[in-house]
Amino acid sequence: MASPAQLCFFLFILVSAAAVVSATDHIVGANKGWNPGINYTLWANNQTFYVGDLISFRYQKTMYNVFEVNQTGYDNCTTEGAVGNWTSGKDFILLNETKRYYFIGGNGQCFNGMKVSVLVHALLSPPSSAATANSSSSAQRIHEVGRFMGLRANVVAIVLGALIWFGSSLI
Ligand SMILES: *[C@@H]1O[C@H](CO)[C@@H](O)[C@H](O)[C@H]1NC(C)=O
Ligand SMILES: *[C@@H]1O[C@H](CO)[C@@H](O)[C@H](O)[C@H]1NC(C)=O
Ligand SMILES: *[C@@H]1O[C@H](CO)[C@@H](O)[C@H](O)[C@H]1NC(C)=O
Ligand SMILES: *[C@@H]1O[C@H](CO)[C@@H](O)[C@H](O)[C@H]1NC(C)=O
Ligand SMILES: *[C@@H]1O[C@H](CO)[C@@H](O)[C@H](O)[C@H]1NC(C)=O
Ligand SMILES: *[C@@H]1O[C@H](CO)[C@@H](O)[C@H](O)[C@H]1NC(C)=O
Ligand SMILES: *[C@@H]1O[C@H](CO)[C@@H](O)[C@H](O)[C@H]1NC(C)=O
């Protein structure tokens, strides 16, 4: 029989798995990080952002920084009226709203390409008659539903592993 300690551990695994679902960390520029001369539009176009995800900026903190601005700040590379600023060199920013976010580098680095905008989607977007007619949009929606239910491969693997471990402890 499973002991109470084993049951607690099993629950802990499940809760941890649920936590993994809610926090995808999008590392800006992937292994290139936050540096001048990179087209971050290409990077942003290659992934999908959902509410609750993190975006993280990795850079040399003595040289660069991060400002969250509005569209005007993004288009004109100005940090006046910035919504937020980060300087740690490894900044994790929670994307907690369904909107387009704009981030730029200060000290003129925005003009050297250090600017990125990301569109954050709701986990379950309301159906729109135009969008549902498109198969690509349907695929997107299925992905969102699957994600909402926690059906992501890494999570499934963790849960399956826990179930197998738990099952074997009953024998
Ligand atoms: C970055 O790539 C996008 C998409 O191909 C393109 O529209 C844009 O002009 C590029 N930006 C720069 C600064 O090269
Ligand atoms: C897009 O993402 C895939 C998988 O994460 C990666 O292999 C590929 O290099 C990326 N392409 C660009 C242009 O960043
Ligand atoms: C942004 O720059 C454009 C031209 O570069 C200018 O016409 C516009 O007034 C600027 N907007 C703000 C809010 O500074
Ligand atoms: C962005 O913020 C600046 C400064 O607060 C403001 O003047 C400008 O109108 C804002 N632009 C938009 C598109 O909200
Ligand atoms: C950065 O943000 C802090 C508040 O978090 C603010 O006090 C400070 O003035 C900001 N710095 C700049 C350069 O905008
Ligand atoms: C998102 O986070 C920001 C900064 O922490 C906060 O000001 C804002 O109220 C939050 N929005 C929601 C919808 O929770
Ligand atoms: C649906 O797809 C067609 C082309 O396949 C495109 O022209 C149209 O803009 C798309 N509509 C939406 C709402 O995405």
UniProtKB/TrEMBL annotation:
Keywords, A to Z? Disulfide bond, Glycoprotein, Signal
InterPro entries recorded: Cupredoxin, Phytocyanin-like, Phytocyanin_dom
Give a Pfam family name.
Cu_bind_like
Q: Give start-end of the signal peptide.
A: 1-23
Cellular component terms (Gene Ontology): plasma membrane
Say yes or no: keyword Signal present. yes
Can you give the residue ranges of the Phytocyanin domain? Answer: 24-122
User: PROSITE patterns per the record?
Assistant: PHYTOCYANIN
Similarity comment: family membership: Belongs to the early nodulin-like (ENODL) family.
* Role noted for this protein: May act as a carbohydrate transporter.
Q: What is this protein called?
A: Phytocyanin domain-containing protein
Which organism does this sequence originate in?
Trapa incisa
